Amino acid sequence: MMSAKPSIIARPCSAGRGDGAHTLPPVSLFKAASTVSLLTLASRVTGLARDLLMASIFGANALTDAFNVAFRIPNLFRRLFAEGAFSQAFVPVLAASRAQHGEEATRHLIDSVATVLAWVLLLACVLGVAGAPVLVWLLASGLRQNPESYQAAVLMTRWMFPYIGFMSLVALAAGVLNTWKRFAVPAATPVLLNLCMIAAAWLGAPQFAARGIEPIYAMAGGVVLGGVLQLGAQLPALYRMGLLPRIGVTWAAVRTAYGDEGVRRILRLMAPALLGVGVAQVSLMINTQIASYLAPGSVTWLFYADRLMEFPTALLGVALGVVLTPQLAAAKAAGDAARYSAMLDWGLRIVVLLAVPCAVGLLTLADPLVATLFHYGALRDADVGEIGRALAGYGVGLLGLVAIKVLAPGYYASQDIRTPVRIAIAVLVITQVLNLALVPWVQHAGLALSIGLAALVNAAWLLIGLLRRGSYRPQPGWGRYALQVVAASTLMALLLVAAAQSFDWIGLRAHAGQRVALLAAVLAAAALLYFGALWAAGLKLRQLLRR
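Request: output the structure for the sequence above.
Response:
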């Protein structure tokens, strides 16, 4: 059947490094997670530079809100067709296929999935471009109070919608590479998007302005170019491994691919995954809708708080999730319950070790962080406090936001997506109840706080489920471990509160270099104090990180 399928991409004669699942050395979880985390750090640092540049050039205004809304729309659909529902279903099935059926059958599965995905994406992009006005209205109808802002959001949505297609194919390639333990390339490629957007803001925006075009439109072009380059960076890696997919271009090839049992299995798993991702995106849409009716700039304040919150969630949660998901799936497929539980336990210990101090940092050092990173150019003094309030709201629930990235793969590895979805639906209701209580009180910061509190509920629910079914059995020593982390974090909090109150972080705007150096010194001192306290309390970090 494979040989009869037409293709637009030919596979090299040699399978290269993709041959032989058993020839690969055993993966070190910490080393792999560290690799992903460090490369993700590069992505987040360039993303931070991007956001800093955007804040300086465009500020927080109606047109910036329009871009952020337009950028969220392709990101929303990316959660459906890329690293969201698709990856949740694709990676466990791919890992199980490789463990149970071997390399050749798995290559066939990759080809079939790529064919179906490519044609679905083509249809989705056409419909998205045509339906952009409806999508903008659904996400942020409050923009219609400013017709210029609304029309700008519609136009930029149309420009950026093809980004979804590129990123979904990137997710396919990343799923394959991660399953073959090639974590570096997928983790590094997001840097390209940030570099393209930096170039668009720095070089493209002035060129647009000189020609009488609204400068913010340059950012939409940067987004699309970033998607193209990310896909282009991953294809050579697949080619060298002999895993470059062959995409069928005829109706017969599409029908054959759709009939593949592996594809059907992925689609069945995607159904609840789509619902789960849809629930998360509905929550995002509701929050954006609410923010669009609040004070001008609220959408942008939340956006910058989101960006800072994504540092710990990506460096910790996403990195651990990327590494653990295929490993957990392989352990499940092999029936190794002890290894499965041990990997979950290790992942949760790393989450507690690193997410708790990060949460303390967001709660105590929100304004200094925002001032140092974003308080330049068009961003006003008042904006710092507004972004800081939202950031502190996220900090309340950071432990939950990160823990979900480890706990949810515990279900995905068992090809159980329905349970996390049911929990997500209940949490959506809880989030909106919290919004009703908090938004009238603290405005846009209430939206962030609702998400944070709901994330804690979500993580606790997922954990209880794994414990009840016996999939996860905590290893001894958790009580002492938690006390050590809490004690060290408390000492660190005292230092950070003193640092936040001892300096005029907003007033240091005129001395940017001094402010950056001061923040770096505070963070370094906090890290030394935290890990020093852990060492003094008897925590053996080397033993924990050696796994």
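Residues 61-271 form one domain.
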